[in-house]
Amino acid sequence: MSGQKPPFSKVLIVGAGPSGLLLALFLAQHDIPSIVLEAWPWLDTRLRATQYGVPATRVFRRAGLLPDFRAASIPKFPAICWRRVADGEKLVEIDMSVVQDEEDRMTVLQLGQMIQIMYRHCMDPEKGKGLIDIRFNHRVTATGQDEEKAWVDVDIGKEDEEKRHERIHADYLVGCDGASSAVRRSLFGKEWPGQTWDCRFVVQNVYYDGFEKHGWDGGNYCIDPEHWGLIARRGHGGLWRVTYGDPTVGLTDEEYLARRPWHLKAMLPGSPEPDQYRIEQTNLYNIHNRCVDSFKVGRILLAADAAHVCNPMGGYGCMTACLDVDGLADCFIGYYEGKASEKILDTYAEVRRDIFLKYVDARSVKNLNRVWKSNPWTVLEEDKFFGIIQELNKDRQALKDFLLKISSIEYDFKQHYDISTPEKAKGTANSHRNGVEVAVEA
Ligand SMILES: Cc1cc2nc3c(=O)[nH]c(=O)nc-3n(C[C@H](O)[C@H](O)[C@H](O)COP(=O)(O)OP(=O)(O)OC[C@H]3O[C@@H](n4cnc5c(N)ncnc54)[C@H](O)[C@@H]3O)c2cc1C
């Protein structure tokens, strides 16, 4: 700190998902208090993210979360491959054992477990320093601001109770409230440019001994126009996550689930019948690629899924969410500690939106097209990405460097601190680089 009074005293965060909790944790580590408002009475338990590429792992390491994530994760994730569903043929494989001893390797953990650990860190008196005030059953319904403050209107109370209404003020407000963000809607209404894909995405936790019997492990992207998706080992005790897109539109969820045995018979090794596997939990989603016109309007900012979403192929959503709030935290911290002017918050909004549009959106669409729209019989020869992987597979060191290199979706906002600091002198600024690491964050 420069010894002067900080320019703001509190940040109000809407949403206790991964982005909201991580932002609060980073702020607390620099003595910045926050209030986190969560609509539900609990942390999210739906089946969504399970893998987070190297750029996200670096964020988890900086946040001090990584040892607990690793302890909760499976010990090894040997490979990622792409298979043709029609005959089960493995087309290309990335040998992840080249990075198995690297601290920054990909993280594998169900989102529900991840946010429980983040919550524990926020509540820990040493890690959260008593500076994070998380309030469940607080549903934000509207936002407002003037020159000095931002605020939210909140419905407080459990679902079946009569609600109490309150207005909560802070210096800044950050919408981390996910894809159906009330904060985003308060700023932009229904306007959220992008597209919704013509499919229903069906996600389930599956126990099936046929995976091991048929020699499957790690992550298996499935290429097929009707049965595309990802099948991956995700937890202890033989837990696998099976996700597929059903390209039929307009059915009810019951109708989609009635088609599930047909999809799983085609996709799982050994073509099993339903009595040969056990499904523990299922969630269905529509999937989108969308980005808001601006991540900042005055004192109100947007981050993560509240600002942008992408289809899940390649695991870009939560990874980008974590990179957004890592960057936003650095901007708030620099401003709070007198190392940067308020303008750095505008820089956050511009840079992270550019990165989403230029890299995350484009790559996640490529990943989706690879498994859904490409010809499974010719994709190996036609897809440049597979050519790069085949080349890298000839040289373990080159593959390792490729898997761990700084990605163009990472960005160090400390390079915008305008007062000289020890960090700046050391030259921590990294790149906003263009590269070919395309889908390996997958
Ligand atoms: C099937 C599927 C698989 C995925 N797999 C991956 C993957 O492997 N890797 C990856 O990186 N990403 C993946 N993603 C994306 C990832 O899950 C999201 O990007 C990530 O959860 C976004 O985090 P968030 O904090 O922005 O939003 P959310 O996780 O949606 O959290 C938002 C929080 O805000 C709360 N909230 C909402 N409205 C209000 C309100 N009005 N008031 C108060 N609180 C509110 C919600 O209850 C919720 O707790 C996947 C997504 C799906 C659907």
UniProtKB/TrEMBL annotation:
GO terms for molecular function: FAD binding; oxidoreductase activity, acting on paired donors, with incorporation or reduction of molecular oxygen, NAD(P)H as one donor, and incorporation of one atom of oxygen. The keyword Oxidoreductase applies. It holds the Pfam family FAD_binding_3. Keywords: FAD, Flavoprotein, Oxidoreductase. Its cofactor is FAD. InterPro entries: FAD-bd, FAD/NAD-bd_sf, RIFMO-like. Residues 10-361 form the FAD-binding domain. This is FAD-binding domain-containing protein. It comes from Hortaea werneckii EXF-2000. The lineage of its organism: Eukaryota, Fungi, Dikarya, Ascomycota, Pezizomycotina.
